[in-house]
Amino acid sequence: MLIYLLVSLLLAVLPLVLRSERASNIVSALFVVAQAASIALVFVLNKVDCVMLSVFRADTMAILFHILMTAVLGFTLLHSASYLKAENVTTRSYKVYYTLLMLLAVAITCVYYSDNVAMTWVFLEATTICSAGLIYHREWEQSLEATWKYIFVCSTGIAMAYLGILLLSTVAEHGSLDYASLKEVIANGNPLYLKVAFLLIVVGYSCKMEIFPLYTVGVDANYAAPAPASAYISTALVNAGFVSIMRIYTLYASAGEVFAWARHVLILIGILSLAVGAMFLRRTNNYKRFMSYSTVENMGIVAIGMGIGGVALWAAVFHVVCHTLIKSSMFYQIGIMRHIYDSYSINRIGNYLSINKVGAIGFIVGTLVLLAFPPSPFFVSEIMIFSEIVSVGSWWLLVAMLILMCVVIYNIWSRSLRLSYHSNQDTLHLSEVNRRLSYSAAVLLIVAIIIGLWQPEVLKNAIDTIVNLG
Protein backbone atom coordinates (compact mmCIF):
# COMPACT_ATOMS: atom_id res chain seq x y z
CA MET A 1 0.00 0.00 0.00
CA LEU A 2 2.90 2.32 0.73
CA ILE A 3 4.31 1.81 -2.77
CA TYR A 4 0.86 2.44 -4.24
CA LEU A 5 0.51 5.71 -2.34
CA LEU A 6 3.99 6.94 -3.28
CA VAL A 7 3.59 6.10 -6.97
CA SER A 8 0.04 7.51 -7.18
CA LEU A 9 0.93 10.75 -5.40
CA LEU A 10 4.03 11.20 -7.54
CA LEU A 11 2.06 10.74 -10.76
CA ALA A 12 -0.70 13.02 -9.46
CA VAL A 13 1.59 16.00 -8.87
CA LEU A 14 3.81 15.37 -11.89
CA PRO A 15 1.66 17.40 -14.37
CA LEU A 16 2.42 20.54 -12.34
CA VAL A 17 6.07 20.42 -13.37
CA LEU A 18 5.47 19.39 -16.98
CA ARG A 19 5.24 21.92 -19.78
CA SER A 20 2.66 20.50 -22.16
CA GLU A 21 -0.91 19.30 -22.02
CA ARG A 22 0.06 16.19 -23.96
CA ALA A 23 2.51 15.23 -21.22
CA SER A 24 -0.29 15.61 -18.66
CA ASN A 25 -2.45 13.26 -20.71
CA ILE A 26 0.33 10.66 -20.77
CA VAL A 27 0.85 10.92 -17.01
CA SER A 28 -2.88 10.56 -16.37
CA ALA A 29 -2.92 7.41 -18.53
CA LEU A 30 -0.04 6.03 -16.48
CA PHE A 31 -2.00 6.88 -13.33
CA VAL A 32 -4.93 4.74 -14.50
CA VAL A 33 -2.51 1.92 -15.33
CA ALA A 34 -1.07 2.24 -11.81
CA GLN A 35 -4.57 1.87 -10.34
CA ALA A 36 -5.25 -1.23 -12.40
CA ALA A 37 -1.83 -2.68 -11.53
CA SER A 38 -2.39 -2.11 -7.80
CA ILE A 39 -5.69 -4.02 -7.98
CA ALA A 40 -4.04 -6.87 -9.85
CA LEU A 41 -1.19 -7.04 -7.32
CA VAL A 42 -3.66 -7.47 -4.47
CA PHE A 43 -4.66 -10.80 -6.03
CA VAL A 44 -1.19 -11.79 -7.30
CA LEU A 45 0.41 -11.20 -3.87
CA ASN A 46 -2.58 -12.77 -2.10
CA LYS A 47 -3.29 -9.62 -0.09
CA VAL A 48 -7.08 -9.96 -0.13
CA ASP A 49 -8.46 -9.17 3.34
CA CYS A 50 -4.98 -8.37 4.64
CA VAL A 51 -4.20 -5.37 6.83
CA MET A 52 -1.65 -2.95 5.36
CA LEU A 53 0.16 -0.10 7.15
CA SER A 54 -2.08 -0.77 10.16
CA VAL A 55 -4.97 1.33 8.77
CA PHE A 56 -5.81 -0.24 5.39
CA ARG A 57 -7.52 -3.51 4.55
CA ALA A 58 -7.99 -4.89 1.03
CA ASP A 59 -11.39 -6.45 1.65
CA THR A 60 -13.96 -7.30 -1.01
CA MET A 61 -15.86 -4.03 -0.74
CA ALA A 62 -12.70 -1.94 -1.14
CA ILE A 63 -11.52 -3.93 -4.16
CA LEU A 64 -14.91 -3.86 -5.90
CA PHE A 65 -15.31 -0.10 -5.59
CA HIS A 66 -11.67 0.51 -6.50
CA ILE A 67 -12.29 -1.40 -9.75
CA LEU A 68 -15.36 0.73 -10.46
CA MET A 69 -13.48 3.92 -9.63
CA THR A 70 -10.63 3.00 -11.96
CA ALA A 71 -13.03 2.30 -14.83
CA VAL A 72 -14.84 5.62 -14.35
CA LEU A 73 -11.55 7.46 -13.93
CA GLY A 74 -10.31 6.21 -17.30
CA PHE A 75 -13.40 7.49 -19.09
CA THR A 76 -13.34 10.73 -17.08
CA LEU A 77 -9.79 11.49 -18.16
CA LEU A 78 -10.64 10.67 -21.77
CA HIS A 79 -13.64 13.02 -21.78
CA SER A 80 -11.77 15.66 -19.78
CA ALA A 81 -9.14 16.08 -22.49
CA SER A 82 -11.81 16.87 -25.09
CA TYR A 83 -13.86 19.00 -22.69
CA LEU A 84 -10.94 21.18 -21.58
CA LYS A 85 -9.76 21.63 -25.15
CA ALA A 86 -13.22 22.87 -26.17
CA GLU A 87 -13.22 25.24 -23.19
CA ASN A 88 -9.88 26.75 -24.34
CA VAL A 89 -8.41 26.65 -20.84
CA THR A 90 -4.83 27.73 -20.18
CA THR A 91 -2.08 25.12 -19.92
CA ARG A 92 -1.71 25.90 -16.23
CA SER A 93 -5.42 25.35 -15.60
CA TYR A 94 -5.28 22.15 -17.63
CA LYS A 95 -2.45 20.75 -15.49
CA VAL A 96 -4.05 21.79 -12.19
CA TYR A 97 -7.29 20.09 -13.22
CA TYR A 98 -5.54 16.78 -13.90
CA THR A 99 -3.54 16.98 -10.69
CA LEU A 100 -6.64 17.63 -8.58
CA LEU A 101 -8.56 14.84 -10.30
CA MET A 102 -5.80 12.31 -9.62
CA LEU A 103 -5.33 13.49 -6.02
CA LEU A 104 -9.07 13.07 -5.51
CA ALA A 105 -8.75 9.52 -6.86
CA VAL A 106 -6.03 8.76 -4.30
CA ALA A 107 -8.11 10.17 -1.44
CA ILE A 108 -11.18 8.19 -2.53
CA THR A 109 -9.13 5.00 -2.80
CA CYS A 110 -7.88 5.53 0.75
CA VAL A 111 -11.49 5.85 1.93
CA TYR A 112 -12.35 2.55 0.24
CA TYR A 113 -9.46 0.67 1.86
CA SER A 114 -9.52 2.37 5.26
CA ASP A 115 -9.91 -0.09 8.14
CA ASN A 116 -10.09 2.53 10.85
CA VAL A 117 -13.05 4.74 11.77
CA ALA A 118 -10.88 7.79 12.44
CA MET A 119 -8.77 7.39 9.28
CA THR A 120 -11.91 7.05 7.16
CA TRP A 121 -12.92 10.43 8.53
CA VAL A 122 -9.49 11.90 7.67
CA PHE A 123 -9.56 10.63 4.08
CA LEU A 124 -13.11 11.88 3.53
CA GLU A 125 -11.98 15.34 4.61
CA ALA A 126 -9.13 15.06 2.09
CA THR A 127 -11.69 14.46 -0.67
CA THR A 128 -13.32 17.78 0.27
CA ILE A 129 -10.11 19.70 -0.42
CA CYS A 130 -9.48 18.02 -3.79
CA SER A 131 -13.11 18.33 -4.88
CA ALA A 132 -13.18 22.03 -4.02
CA GLY A 133 -10.42 22.72 -6.53
CA LEU A 134 -12.33 20.92 -9.28
CA ILE A 135 -15.54 22.78 -8.45
CA TYR A 136 -13.75 26.12 -8.75
CA HIS A 137 -11.98 25.12 -11.97
CA ARG A 138 -13.93 27.55 -14.18
CA GLU A 139 -13.16 30.46 -11.84
CA TRP A 140 -16.48 32.20 -12.30
CA GLU A 141 -18.81 33.69 -9.70
CA GLN A 142 -21.20 30.74 -9.41
CA SER A 143 -18.36 28.23 -9.12
CA LEU A 144 -16.79 30.34 -6.36
CA GLU A 145 -20.09 30.33 -4.48
CA ALA A 146 -20.49 26.58 -4.97
CA THR A 147 -16.90 25.99 -3.80
CA TRP A 148 -17.28 27.92 -0.56
CA LYS A 149 -20.64 26.30 0.09
CA TYR A 150 -19.11 22.87 -0.53
CA ILE A 151 -16.19 23.53 1.82
CA PHE A 152 -18.40 24.98 4.56
CA VAL A 153 -21.18 22.36 4.49
CA CYS A 154 -18.82 19.40 4.03
CA SER A 155 -16.62 20.63 6.87
CA THR A 156 -19.70 21.02 9.05
CA GLY A 157 -20.84 17.51 8.13
CA ILE A 158 -17.39 16.04 8.73
CA ALA A 159 -17.26 17.85 12.11
CA MET A 160 -20.59 16.25 13.04
CA ALA A 161 -19.23 12.87 12.03
CA TYR A 162 -16.18 13.54 14.21
CA LEU A 163 -18.43 14.06 17.23
CA GLY A 164 -20.14 10.78 16.38
CA ILE A 165 -16.77 9.01 16.20
CA LEU A 166 -15.85 10.43 19.62
CA LEU A 167 -19.03 8.92 21.08
CA LEU A 168 -18.42 5.66 19.26
CA SER A 169 -14.87 5.52 20.64
CA THR A 170 -16.29 5.19 24.17
CA VAL A 171 -16.74 1.47 23.48
CA ALA A 172 -13.19 1.01 22.16
CA GLU A 173 -10.72 -1.10 24.13
CA HIS A 174 -7.12 0.12 24.38
CA GLY A 175 -7.98 3.01 22.01
CA SER A 176 -8.31 0.74 18.98
CA LEU A 177 -10.64 2.21 16.36
CA ASP A 178 -10.34 -0.41 13.63
CA TYR A 179 -13.68 -1.82 12.53
CA ALA A 180 -12.98 -5.41 13.61
CA SER A 181 -12.05 -4.42 17.18
CA LEU A 182 -15.06 -2.14 17.52
CA LYS A 183 -17.37 -4.84 16.19
CA GLU A 184 -16.33 -7.17 19.02
CA VAL A 185 -17.18 -4.71 21.80
CA ILE A 186 -19.94 -2.51 20.37
CA ALA A 187 -22.67 -4.60 21.98
CA ASN A 188 -21.36 -3.48 25.39
CA GLY A 189 -21.71 0.21 24.58
CA ASN A 190 -24.22 2.66 26.03
CA PRO A 191 -27.30 2.46 23.71
CA LEU A 192 -27.91 6.21 23.90
CA TYR A 193 -24.31 7.04 22.96
CA LEU A 194 -24.42 4.54 20.11
CA LYS A 195 -27.68 5.96 18.73
CA VAL A 196 -26.44 9.55 18.82
CA ALA A 197 -23.11 8.46 17.30
CA PHE A 198 -24.83 6.69 14.41
CA LEU A 199 -27.07 9.67 13.71
CA LEU A 200 -24.18 12.14 13.74
CA ILE A 201 -21.97 9.98 11.52
CA VAL A 202 -24.67 9.23 8.93
CA VAL A 203 -25.84 12.86 8.79
CA GLY A 204 -22.23 14.02 8.55
CA TYR A 205 -21.36 11.60 5.75
CA SER A 206 -24.59 12.40 3.89
CA CYS A 207 -22.75 15.29 2.21
CA LYS A 208 -20.59 12.68 0.44
CA MET A 209 -23.25 10.07 -0.33
CA GLU A 210 -25.60 12.88 -1.47
CA ILE A 211 -28.57 11.90 0.67
CA PHE A 212 -30.79 13.90 3.01
CA PRO A 213 -30.04 16.22 4.78
CA LEU A 214 -26.70 17.51 3.36
CA TYR A 215 -27.35 16.56 -0.26
CA THR A 216 -27.39 20.18 -1.48
CA VAL A 217 -23.61 20.54 -1.66
CA GLY A 218 -23.36 17.63 -4.07
CA VAL A 219 -25.95 19.18 -6.36
CA ASP A 220 -24.13 22.53 -6.42
CA ALA A 221 -20.76 20.81 -6.87
CA ASN A 222 -21.95 18.83 -9.89
CA TYR A 223 -23.46 21.97 -11.39
CA ALA A 224 -20.30 24.08 -11.04
CA ALA A 225 -17.63 21.50 -11.89
CA PRO A 226 -16.73 20.52 -15.48
CA ALA A 227 -19.06 17.75 -16.71
CA PRO A 228 -16.44 14.94 -16.69
CA ALA A 229 -15.48 15.89 -13.12
CA SER A 230 -19.18 15.92 -12.22
CA ALA A 231 -19.42 12.35 -13.51
CA TYR A 232 -16.59 11.40 -11.18
CA ILE A 233 -17.92 13.27 -8.15
CA SER A 234 -21.42 11.83 -8.63
CA THR A 235 -20.13 8.26 -8.77
CA ALA A 236 -16.70 7.59 -7.26
CA LEU A 237 -17.05 10.19 -4.48
CA VAL A 238 -20.67 9.24 -3.78
CA ASN A 239 -19.46 5.64 -3.52
CA ALA A 240 -16.89 6.76 -0.94
CA GLY A 241 -19.75 8.14 1.14
CA PHE A 242 -21.68 4.91 0.70
CA VAL A 243 -18.69 2.73 1.67
CA SER A 244 -18.11 4.85 4.80
CA ILE A 245 -21.73 4.53 5.90
CA MET A 246 -21.84 0.85 4.92
CA ARG A 247 -18.89 0.12 7.21
CA ILE A 248 -20.65 1.83 10.11
CA TYR A 249 -23.83 -0.10 9.22
CA THR A 250 -21.92 -3.41 9.28
CA LEU A 251 -20.36 -2.42 12.59
CA TYR A 252 -23.75 -1.70 14.13
CA ALA A 253 -25.08 -5.10 13.04
CA SER A 254 -23.50 -6.41 16.24
CA ALA A 255 -25.11 -3.71 18.40
CA GLY A 256 -28.33 -5.58 19.20
CA GLU A 257 -31.44 -3.43 19.56
CA VAL A 258 -29.53 -0.30 18.51
CA PHE A 259 -29.15 -1.80 15.02
CA ALA A 260 -32.93 -1.97 14.58
CA TRP A 261 -33.14 1.71 15.48
CA ALA A 262 -30.32 2.55 13.07
CA ARG A 263 -32.13 0.78 10.23
CA HIS A 264 -35.24 2.87 10.87
CA VAL A 265 -33.09 6.00 10.65
CA LEU A 266 -31.82 4.89 7.24
CA ILE A 267 -35.36 4.23 6.02
CA LEU A 268 -36.41 7.73 7.09
CA ILE A 269 -33.38 9.33 5.44
CA GLY A 270 -33.99 7.26 2.33
CA ILE A 271 -37.63 8.22 1.88
CA LEU A 272 -36.81 11.90 2.51
CA SER A 273 -34.03 11.73 -0.10
CA LEU A 274 -36.42 10.12 -2.56
CA ALA A 275 -38.99 12.85 -1.88
CA VAL A 276 -36.40 15.61 -2.37
CA GLY A 277 -35.25 14.09 -5.63
CA ALA A 278 -38.81 13.75 -6.93
CA MET A 279 -39.69 17.33 -5.99
CA PHE A 280 -36.60 19.08 -7.37
CA LEU A 281 -36.41 17.05 -10.56
CA ARG A 282 -39.51 18.94 -11.59
CA ARG A 283 -38.32 22.37 -10.48
CA THR A 284 -34.78 22.50 -11.84
CA ASN A 285 -34.03 24.06 -15.24
CA ASN A 286 -30.48 22.76 -15.65
CA TYR A 287 -29.54 19.33 -16.96
CA LYS A 288 -26.53 18.94 -14.64
CA ARG A 289 -28.61 19.76 -11.57
CA PHE A 290 -31.23 17.45 -13.01
CA MET A 291 -28.78 14.51 -13.03
CA SER A 292 -27.59 15.47 -9.55
CA TYR A 293 -31.09 15.24 -8.09
CA SER A 294 -31.39 11.87 -9.81
CA THR A 295 -28.35 10.81 -7.77
CA VAL A 296 -30.09 11.98 -4.57
CA GLU A 297 -33.15 9.94 -5.55
CA ASN A 298 -31.13 6.80 -6.31
CA MET A 299 -29.07 7.04 -3.13
CA GLY A 300 -32.35 7.41 -1.26
CA ILE A 301 -33.43 4.05 -2.68
CA VAL A 302 -30.08 2.61 -1.55
CA ALA A 303 -30.59 3.95 1.99
CA ILE A 304 -34.06 2.38 2.10
CA GLY A 305 -32.60 -0.95 0.97
CA MET A 306 -30.01 -0.76 3.76
CA GLY A 307 -32.72 0.06 6.27
CA ILE A 308 -34.96 -2.84 5.22
CA GLY A 309 -32.06 -5.32 5.25
CA GLY A 310 -32.13 -8.91 4.03
CA VAL A 311 -32.40 -9.24 0.27
CA ALA A 312 -32.88 -5.46 0.03
CA LEU A 313 -29.37 -4.92 1.41
CA TRP A 314 -27.92 -7.06 -1.39
CA ALA A 315 -30.00 -5.06 -3.86
CA ALA A 316 -28.74 -1.77 -2.35
CA VAL A 317 -25.10 -2.67 -2.97
CA PHE A 318 -25.95 -3.90 -6.48
CA HIS A 319 -27.81 -0.63 -7.09
CA VAL A 320 -24.75 1.42 -6.15
CA VAL A 321 -22.50 -0.64 -8.42
CA CYS A 322 -24.81 -0.14 -11.41
CA HIS A 323 -25.45 3.52 -10.58
CA THR A 324 -21.72 4.11 -10.99
CA LEU A 325 -21.85 2.94 -14.59
CA ILE A 326 -25.16 4.53 -15.57
CA LYS A 327 -24.77 7.95 -13.98
CA SER A 328 -21.22 8.48 -15.22
CA SER A 329 -22.39 7.66 -18.77
CA MET A 330 -25.21 10.21 -18.49
CA PHE A 331 -22.89 12.97 -17.25
CA TYR A 332 -20.48 12.30 -20.12
CA GLN A 333 -23.36 12.65 -22.57
CA ILE A 334 -24.32 15.95 -20.95
CA GLY A 335 -20.72 17.16 -21.26
CA ILE A 336 -20.78 16.40 -24.99
CA MET A 337 -24.12 18.19 -25.28
CA ARG A 338 -22.76 21.32 -23.56
CA HIS A 339 -20.33 22.07 -26.39
CA ILE A 340 -23.05 21.81 -29.01
CA TYR A 341 -25.27 24.29 -27.17
CA ASP A 342 -24.40 27.41 -25.19
CA SER A 343 -25.98 26.21 -21.94
CA TYR A 344 -27.48 23.35 -19.94
CA SER A 345 -30.88 25.08 -19.87
CA ILE A 346 -33.75 22.59 -20.10
CA ASN A 347 -36.17 25.23 -21.42
CA ARG A 348 -33.85 26.46 -24.19
CA ILE A 349 -32.06 23.51 -25.75
CA GLY A 350 -33.75 20.88 -27.91
CA ASN A 351 -33.89 19.04 -31.25
CA TYR A 352 -30.90 16.99 -30.10
CA LEU A 353 -31.93 13.91 -32.07
CA SER A 354 -31.47 15.79 -35.35
CA ILE A 355 -28.22 17.42 -34.26
CA ASN A 356 -26.37 14.46 -32.69
CA LYS A 357 -28.29 11.24 -33.27
CA VAL A 358 -25.73 9.03 -31.53
CA GLY A 359 -25.66 11.22 -28.42
CA ALA A 360 -29.46 11.60 -28.37
CA ILE A 361 -30.05 7.86 -28.62
CA GLY A 362 -27.46 7.30 -25.88
CA PHE A 363 -29.24 9.84 -23.68
CA ILE A 364 -32.70 8.36 -24.32
CA VAL A 365 -31.53 4.79 -23.68
CA GLY A 366 -29.65 6.01 -20.60
CA THR A 367 -32.82 7.66 -19.35
CA LEU A 368 -34.78 4.43 -19.76
CA VAL A 369 -32.08 2.51 -17.89
CA LEU A 370 -31.99 5.19 -15.18
CA LEU A 371 -35.76 4.82 -14.78
CA ALA A 372 -35.39 1.05 -14.22
CA PHE A 373 -37.15 -0.11 -17.37
CA PRO A 374 -36.00 -3.65 -18.30
CA PRO A 375 -33.29 -4.66 -19.07
CA SER A 376 -32.00 -2.03 -16.66
CA PRO A 377 -30.08 -3.42 -13.66
CA PHE A 378 -32.10 -0.96 -11.57
CA PHE A 379 -35.18 -3.00 -12.42
CA VAL A 380 -33.52 -5.99 -10.74
CA SER A 381 -32.43 -4.08 -7.63
CA GLU A 382 -35.70 -2.20 -7.16
CA ILE A 383 -37.83 -5.34 -7.57
CA MET A 384 -35.69 -7.02 -4.91
CA ILE A 385 -36.15 -4.06 -2.56
CA PHE A 386 -39.91 -4.00 -3.16
CA SER A 387 -40.19 -7.75 -2.54
CA GLU A 388 -38.35 -7.44 0.78
CA ILE A 389 -40.55 -4.50 1.79
CA VAL A 390 -43.64 -6.63 1.10
CA SER A 391 -42.18 -9.56 3.02
CA VAL A 392 -41.65 -7.41 6.14
CA GLY A 393 -45.12 -5.86 5.78
CA SER A 394 -44.09 -2.19 5.40
CA TRP A 395 -46.98 -1.31 3.09
CA TRP A 396 -46.85 2.40 3.87
CA LEU A 397 -43.24 2.48 2.68
CA LEU A 398 -44.09 0.59 -0.50
CA VAL A 399 -46.95 2.97 -1.35
CA ALA A 400 -44.81 6.05 -0.61
CA MET A 401 -41.96 4.77 -2.77
CA LEU A 402 -44.22 3.90 -5.69
CA ILE A 403 -45.91 7.32 -5.65
CA LEU A 404 -42.60 9.19 -5.49
CA MET A 405 -41.01 7.02 -8.16
CA CYS A 406 -43.95 7.66 -10.50
CA VAL A 407 -43.26 11.38 -10.08
CA VAL A 408 -39.58 10.75 -10.82
CA ILE A 409 -40.38 8.73 -13.95
CA TYR A 410 -42.67 11.46 -15.30
CA ASN A 411 -40.17 14.25 -14.65
CA ILE A 412 -37.11 12.51 -16.06
CA TRP A 413 -38.82 11.03 -19.11
CA SER A 414 -40.57 14.27 -20.07
CA ARG A 415 -37.27 16.20 -19.87
CA SER A 416 -35.48 13.56 -21.94
CA LEU A 417 -38.10 13.78 -24.69
CA ARG A 418 -37.96 17.57 -24.56
CA LEU A 419 -34.22 17.52 -25.22
CA SER A 420 -34.57 15.21 -28.21
CA TYR A 421 -37.69 16.57 -29.92
CA HIS A 422 -38.50 20.07 -28.62
CA SER A 423 -37.55 22.99 -30.84
CA ASN A 424 -34.16 24.47 -30.03
CA GLN A 425 -33.89 28.10 -28.85
CA ASP A 426 -30.19 28.10 -28.00
CA THR A 427 -27.10 28.92 -30.06
CA LEU A 428 -25.67 25.91 -31.89
CA HIS A 429 -22.05 24.95 -32.51
CA LEU A 430 -22.42 22.13 -35.00
CA SER A 431 -18.66 21.84 -35.52
CA GLU A 432 -18.37 20.64 -31.91
CA VAL A 433 -20.43 17.45 -32.48
CA ASN A 434 -18.17 14.56 -31.40
CA ARG A 435 -19.85 11.24 -32.10
CA ARG A 436 -16.81 9.23 -31.03
CA LEU A 437 -17.13 10.57 -27.50
CA SER A 438 -20.85 9.76 -27.60
CA TYR A 439 -19.97 6.17 -28.45
CA SER A 440 -17.40 5.98 -25.65
CA ALA A 441 -19.93 7.33 -23.15
CA ALA A 442 -22.31 4.57 -24.20
CA VAL A 443 -19.79 1.84 -23.32
CA LEU A 444 -20.44 2.06 -19.58
CA LEU A 445 -24.18 2.11 -20.24
CA ILE A 446 -23.92 -1.06 -22.33
CA VAL A 447 -21.99 -2.77 -19.53
CA ALA A 448 -24.76 -1.79 -17.09
CA ILE A 449 -27.43 -3.25 -19.41
CA ILE A 450 -25.46 -6.49 -19.70
CA ILE A 451 -25.31 -6.71 -15.90
CA GLY A 452 -29.08 -6.15 -15.85
CA LEU A 453 -29.52 -9.18 -18.10
CA TRP A 454 -26.83 -11.36 -16.56
CA GLN A 455 -25.11 -10.86 -13.24
CA PRO A 456 -21.61 -12.40 -13.35
CA GLU A 457 -20.97 -14.98 -10.65
CA VAL A 458 -17.92 -13.07 -9.45
CA LEU A 459 -20.05 -9.95 -8.88
CA LYS A 460 -22.75 -11.89 -7.04
CA ASN A 461 -20.17 -13.55 -4.81
CA ALA A 462 -18.53 -10.20 -4.09
CA ILE A 463 -21.82 -8.63 -3.03
CA ASP A 464 -22.67 -11.73 -0.96
CA THR A 465 -19.42 -11.21 0.93
CA ILE A 466 -20.06 -7.49 1.42
CA VAL A 467 -23.55 -7.96 2.87
CA ASN A 468 -22.52 -10.76 5.18
CA LEU A 469 -23.09 -9.08 8.53
CA GLY A 470 -21.78 -11.98 10.61
Folded structure, characterized:
It is built from 19 helices and two strands. The protein is mainly α. β1 (51-52) and β2 (56-57) form a beta hairpin. 77% of the residues lie in helices and 1% in strands. The protein has helices at 2-13, 21-44, 60-87, 91-113, 117-135, 141-168, 179-185, 191-209, 216-224, 227-252, 257-283, 287-308, 311-338, 352-355, 357-370, 377-392, 395-421, 435-453, 457-466; strands at residues 51-52, 56-57. α3 runs antiparallel to α4 (91-113) and α6 (141-168) runs antiparallel to α9 (216-224). It has a domain at 264-470. The chain has a two-stranded antiparallel ribbon with strand order 1-2.
Span between termini: 27 Å
Can you give the mean pLDDT? 94
Report strand %: under 5%
Helical residue percent band? over 70%
Unreliable runs: none
Structural class: mainly alpha
Quick structural overview:
This protein is 77% helix and 1% strand.
